[in-house]
Amino acid sequence: MKKTISSMAAMAISLALSAQIQMTVNAKKPGAEIQPEMYGVFFEDINFGADGGVYAELIKNRSFEFEHPFVGWTPFGDVVVKNDDACFDKNPNYVRVTGKGLRTFSGLENNGFKGIGIKKDAEYHLSFHARVEKGKTIKLKLEIINSHNDPISVKHIEVTGDDWQKHTTVLTANSTDAHSKFRLMVENWGYIDMDHISLFPGDTWKGRENGLRKDLVQALYDLNPGVFRFPGGCIVEGNTLESRYQWKNSVGPVENRPLNINRWNYTFKHKFFPDYYQSYGMGFYEYFLLSEDLGAEPLPVLSCGLACQYESKELVSLEDLEPYIQDALDLIEFANGATTTKWGKVRADMGHPESFNLKFLAIGNEQWGEVYVERLQRFIDVLSKKHPEIVLIGSSGPQPDGKDFDYLWPEMKKLDVALVDEHYYRSPEWFLENAGRYDSYDRKGPKVFAGEYAAHPKNRDNNFEGALAEAAFMTGLERNADMVQMATYAPLFAHVEAWQWCPDMIWFDNLKCVRTPNYYVQQMYGTNAGTHVLSLQAEGFDLKGQDGIYASSVIDKNKSEIIIKVANTNTETKDLSLTIEGLKKGLNSNKAEITMIQSNDLSVVNTLDNPLNIIPQNFTESISGSTLNLKLTKNSFYVIKFSY
Prior knowledge:
This protein is an alpha/beta fold and 644 residues long. The chain folds into 3 domains: 21-35 and 532-643, Golgi alpha-mannosidase II (Immunoglobulin-like); 39-56 and 206-526, TIM Barrel (Alpha-Beta Barrel), CATH 3.20.20.80; 73-201, Galactose-binding domain-like (Jelly Rolls, Sandwich), CATH 2.60.120. It is 19% helix and 32% strand. Strands 2-14-17-18-19-20-21-22 form an 8-stranded parallel beta barrel, surrounded by 6 helices. Helix 4 crosses helix 5 (342-349). The longest helix is centred in the first third of the chain and has 18 residues, at 2-19. The radius of gyration is 28 Å and the shape is globular.
C-alpha cells in the first residue's frame, strides 16, 4: 500500500512539473539591437483626429473657406461673405456683418466640432482680423453660450480702423459644458469685416499659441513613442491628386494656410461628414514640433504622384514627376537645412532655427503595382544621391499578403529601400496565428516597418480580445527586432461623436479622453522596449502560441534590466517558472517588478464614463535565487522586469 501511495505521489509531482511552463532567459550573449524607434505612433486626420481633436482650435471653418462658407456658422441679421481686398491671399473669404441698430442685431454663431467643450474658470483666447468703416467704431458683443442657450461668458469690445488688424481678447467661462457655442453680435450701426475668427483654450500643450489639446498629447507622451509617422495614411494620396496632402500649404503663417478637403469626409457613405476639411492649422511644422516634444523620430510620408488607387486611376506621368521629387528635397531642407536656405529660413521664421534632425522619409502610403515602383525609383535616384543620410521607406501595399504584396517585396529589394512599410488590419485570430510571421524573412533584404496594424474583433470594438491578440503578436516583432525595426498601431484618435473608422487607440469627446486596452498594450511595450533581444527558451514550448503562450525577452543595458513579456491567451491559469541565467553578478534584487493587464471578459472596453474598466496593474513577486514562480492568469499579458 505504501508503495502504491508513493507511486501515485511521484506521478502527481511529475504531472505538476509537466504542467508548469519552464522558461529560461540567457543574458550572457545579448542578440539583435532594438532600435530606439521600435514602438511609436501613427497619426492621420481621420475621425476628426486633427481639426476637432488634437488641434485645439474650437471654431469650425474659422476663415469661411469651406465649399459652403457658412458651414459651422449660423448667421443672423445682415451677414454676407466677401473676398475683395482680402486680408489673406490664400484664404480670401471673409464676412461683412452690418449692424442696423435694431433689437434683432446682426452676427454669427459657431457650433464648433459637435459643440465646443468649455471648462469652468478656464480662459479661452479669442482672436480675429477685422476692419471697419473709416472713422467708425463698431461695438461687438462676444459670448460663449452653453447647450441650454445661456451665456456662460460675455465680453464687450470696440473695434476701430479701416485697415486689416488682428484683435485679441480673453473669455472666461463660469460653468462647464461640452456642447457650447460661440456667438458674436454687432451692437450698433455700421459694418465690420472679419476673418480668421479663432478660439483656443489658454491651457494648450506647453502653453503654445496655435497649440494642441493638452490631454490628448499627454496620452501620446505617456506611450514613450520612438517614432511619429504623419500626416497619413490615405490623406497623403488624396482621392484626387489635387486633394492630396501638400506639406508646403501647411507651413508659414497659420492664417494663410489654404484649406484642403479631407478625403475622409465622403469615403464612408454610412459615416458621411460633408463638413470635414483640413485647416492645416496643425501642419508639418506642428508635426515636427510634436515629434520633438514626444522624443520621437519624425517620419513624414509624401505623395509619390499617385492618387488613392482604391478610388482613382489618376497619376502623374514620369515626365512630370519632378515637382513631387522637389517637394521631398524641399522638405528635407525645411526640416534640416540651415537658416540661410529658403526652406530652412521658413522653419526659423516660424520659431525653430535649430534643425529637426529628420532621418526617415516614406515615399507613398499604400501604393502598389508597377506604377508605384516606377515612381519610387525616380525618387530614390535623386534622394539617395543628394541626401544619402535619409533613410527611405517603400511600401508593400495595403495587404499583408496576396498578389500585390508578393510583387512589391522583390521590387523593394531591387530598389534597395531601407525599410518596407507593411500594413495589416486583421482578426484577432490572424494576429495570434502570425506571431512567427517574421521568423523566416530574408535578413539580407530591407527591414520591416509595421506602419499600420490593429486587430479587428467581429464588432470592431476596442476590446480586450483585440488588445491581447496584439500583445501576443508583438512578442514576434520583438523576437525579430533584427528584421522589424519600427511598429505603429493605427488609427490613433477618434471623436466619439464624429468617428468613421474603428477600432482606434484613443477616444475622446470635447472635454475628456479614454485610453483603450490597446493603448495600454502599446504603452507596456513602449515603456519597456529594451536595447537588445535576449534568448528565451522554454521546455516543450516554441513560445509562438503553442498551448496559447507567447513570449519574448530583452535586456535594457541603460537601465540594467531584463524584461520578459508573456501573453497567456488561454481560458485557464498557467504556472510559469522563469529563470535568469548568464549574469556575471546575478540579480541585485530578490523581487521582480510586474505589470499585468487581464480580463475574464474578452469583450470588455474602456469608455469615457468608465475609463478604468481595464488598466494595467503593478505589483512585485519574490525571486528564489534567480527563479521567479508566477501564475499566469487566463486572458492576460505580463511585463516582468528583473534588475541586475
